[in-house]
Design brief:
The protein has a six-stranded parallel β-sheet, with helices on both faces. A four-stranded mixed β-sheet has the order 8-7-9-10. It is globular and about 65 Å long. It is an alpha/beta fold. Helix 7 packs across helix 17 and helix 8 packs parallel to helix 12. It has three domains: about 170 residues, Rossmann fold (3-Layer(aba) Sandwich); about 140 residues, no CATH class; about 90 residues, Type Iii Antifreeze Protein Isoform Hplc 12 (Alpha-Beta Complex), CATH 3.90.1210. It contains 17 helices and 15 strands. The chain is about 35% helix and about 15% strand.
């Protein structure tokens, strides 16, 4: 509760947190809007494949032109201005940088940037939850070995869920379920970039004018992004994924403690301690009253009658028994809140959520019958969607993680609804992201022998 004062102290000492941002899309732009208004933070550099896009982003969020006049990282450090470049590696290596934010959304790029951060001693805030779902537990372990912090991004739903879980546990409650809301119907798993806009109530022309990316928005709709985010939460909190994948039950905020409790108690969960995503739509497509489409939640249990009575006395929403209760946050502001992570990792050495073990994985699953010779087009595309599984089930199925289902050729037919296996695709096993993922599987395989792997000194960057 003192981050603002710590930022003021850094500002008054003339030692602002020097930050490098990689990726000037929507998330990154929203961060830039608030970073310029936050004492104690200096955006020293922005790296983007298109420097022109990065420059346009600073203009769009209201930065004066003189703020981005630095021609080099040295200029930015000396002048207190911002350097815009297309060279992410040079930004990470630049003298003075303390914190790197990866907002690229590319799993391979995210892994590369993490490894460079560990080499150069930079903390990293991972907006790139795609990379985290692919190899986050290993990346976080390598960060600890390098003496830096690897953190999920505050403002994005996984970090906000982790915060709520931590609040509940630190208050002495057992967490029954935690997750987020979204707009979901079963048919959305088949959605492609050609069909996505009708589900959002937009025409293709409206989407084009708005500069909206069909494949990215489709990943939110077809269930992939929900799976990725819940894998991140499971790996950071120890909550378990449902064995059959996310159920996306239709649920309003008032129904959270009733629906998100174990089946034995009348709910939909396999057991206590699960992640789950709730739908803002009933199965007939009607919007629920008091839905949680944009928010996050935690359900927790009273340990005895006294605490249950306190729940009632203080007006908590509970199930009929009074034992299961919920708290929720109705919105998340993505990049507008990201400064919390930057301040936390730099000033406290503390992540706003980070993977500790490998509990959840997201496996590429065929949207239609796929023929040998086709090329997978990744998250949100025409071929596959990402299904959340336990890591044990993913390994048993030889499941190909969604983060590697990009630009690889299928070698044998795959039926609709079936997981894509490593054996079904032609992958370059020497590719860095593939090697890191395979290393994570070896180190974090869910067996008793790996239960204390986070303390293994053999894990080095």
């Amino acid at each position: 509760m003192n981050l603002h004062q710590l930022l003021l102290d850094r500002a008054s000492a003339g030692r602002p947190i020097r930050v490098g941002l990689i990726g000037a899309g929507k998330f990154g732009s929203m961060f830039l809007a608030q970073a310029a208004r936050t004492p104690g933070i200096h955006i020293m550099g922005i790296a983007d494949l298109s420097p022109a896009r990065a420059q346009a982003a600073t203009t769009q969020v209201g930065w004066p032109a003189e703020r981005t006049t630095a021609r080099t990282a040295v200029d930015a450090l000396r002048q207190g201005t911002t350097w815009i470049t297309d060279d992410a590696a040079a930004l990470i290596a630049a003298d003075g940088i303390e914190v790197i934010i990866d907002a690229t959304g590319s799993p391979a790029a995210g892994i590369r940037h993490c490894l460079l951060c560990f080499e150069h001693g930079r903390h990293i805030v991972m907006v790139n939850v795609e990379a985290d779902a692919l190899a986050g537990p290993l990346l976080a372990a390598k960060a600890r070995s390098a003496g830096v912090v690897y953190s999920l991004a505050y403002g994005d739903q996984p970090a906000l869920i982790c915060e709520m879980v931590d609040w509940a546990r630190a208050s002495g409650f057992e967490v029954v379920a935690a997750g987020k809301g979204t707009k979901y119907l079963p048919v959305y798993h088949d959605s492609t970039p050609d069909t996505v806009w009708s589900h959002y109530g937009l025409t293709p022309d409206q989407a084009r004018v708005g500069g909206l990316n069909a494949q990215m928005f489709n990943s939110f709709l077809d269930g992939t992004k929900s799976g990725i985010e819940m894998a991140a939460v499971a790996n950071a909190t120890g909550l378990r994924p449902p064995r059959g994948g996310l159920a996306f039950p239709a649920c309003s905020v008032d129904e959270l403690p009733t629906i998100l409790r174990p089946r034995a108690a009348g709910g939909v969960l396999d057991d206590k301690g699960m992640v789950e995503v709730i739908s803002s739509l009933s199965r007939d497509g009607e919007r629920l009253p008091r839905d949680l489409r944009w928010g996050v939640y935690v359900v927790f249990e009273a340990p005895d009658d006294y605490v249950a009575r306190c729940f009632a006395e203080y007006g908590l929403c509970t199930d009929a028994s009074g034992r299961y209760a919920s708290m929720y946050k109705p919105f998340h502001l993505i990049g507008l809140e990201l400064g919390i992570s930057v301040a936390s990792v730099a000033l406290r050495g503390e992540a706003t959520g980070a993977p500790r073990a490998w509990h959840g994985d997201v496996v590429a699953t065929a949207k239609r019958d796929l023929a040998a010779g086709e090329t997978l087009d990744g998250e949100g595309g025409f071929c596959v969607w990402g299904k959340l599984m336990t890591s044990a089930d993913s390994l048993a199925a030889d499941g190909l993680p969604i983060g590697l289902a990009h630009h690889c050729r299928i070698t044998q037919p795959i039926r609709k609804g079936q997981p894509v296996r490593w054996a079904d695709v032609d992958l370059n096993l020497e590719q860095e992201s593939v090697r890191i993922r395979r290393e994570m599987e070896r180190v974090f395989a869910p067996t008793a022998a790996h239960s204390s792997v986070l303390n293994n000194p053999a894990i080095t960057p």
